[in-house]
Design a protein that fits this description.
2 copies of one chain form a homodimer. The first copy, chain A, is an alpha+beta fold. Chain A has 4 helices and 6 strands. A 6-stranded mixed beta sheet of chain A has the order 1-2-3-4-6-5, sandwiched between helices. The model of chain A has no long low-confidence stretch (mean pLDDT 97). Chains A and B meet through strand 4, strand 5 and strand 6 of A and strand 4, strand 5 and strand 6 of B.
Chain lengths: 146, 146
């Protein structure tokens, strides 16, 4: 589920050539917690991680990343995971959530995060090397949770 | 030189209780390179690190952190290190430089980075837990180098 997203190099900064071991590290081991969403057959159809975005004096702001399985898209799953992650974040003591690099061409994500109360704090010119489009802009998005 | 800055908890997110080992790791080991500035007696009066700010598809944007020894402040040293770091960044192949968490109360830093062509891309509300002031805003600052 994660592999095609990382391989595409269109939404996450991780190398399109990332190994399974490295992907396990960044998605499962490094974060504070990782969740999966399952369908009615208990098959995994989505996942997200949550972690502090900065060390100690910035550790009250969390960062999350979300992936929905290709066959399960456009059913509101990203939206459900975004809601879940915010509730989870508050219960873990986080006061805000930050997305550091929302690729500007990922319009459905930008629209969805806005709908969930995230603001585009600013746009970083040419900060993402898109596999097909080359250097493009990415947004910093942010939401105070309490 | 670094210790009083980290202990103060007013400009960097690292824990004010950071150990020497952890500080060595974040300032010397984790970055791609770390430099020191010396005075005419070869005494160290400043230091900065440079590292990629994101993995692979964002690794063309670097991040730097700078510290000037207390007794050597207000002599243009941060400015010299900022210039040096930009030249160094270009020679290392970086295309842009990003400061992720410029504490809003650190007005001399904000003014200096602006003077050096960095823009405030956006401001993250309450993203820094200042040792004396509590939760305060911090800026994301950014400059295209080429």
């Amino acid at each position: 589920m994660i592999e095609p997203v990382f391989r595409a190099g269109e939404t996450y900064a991780f190398s399109p050539d990332i190994t399974a071991e490295e992907a396990y590290k960044v998605w499962i081991e490094a974060p504070a917690a990782t969740f999966v969403a399952v369908d009615s057959n208990q098959a995994i159809v989505g996942t997200y991680y949550i972690k502090p975005n900065q060390p100690a004096l910035g550790a009250h702001v969390c960062n999350c990343g979300y992936i929905v399985a290709k066959h399960a898209r456009n059913q509101g799953l990203a939206s459900l995971m975004c809601d879940h992650s915010q509730i989870q974040a508050v219960s873990m003591g986080f006061l805000a959530m930050q997305y550091n690099l929302v690729v500007s061409t990922n319009e459905s994500a930008v629209r969805l995060w806005k709908k969930h109360g995230f603001e585009i704090i600013g746009t970083l010119p040419k900060s993402f090397r898109h596999s097909r489009l080359g250097l493009i802009d990415a947004h910093v998005m942010y939401k105070l949770l309490t």
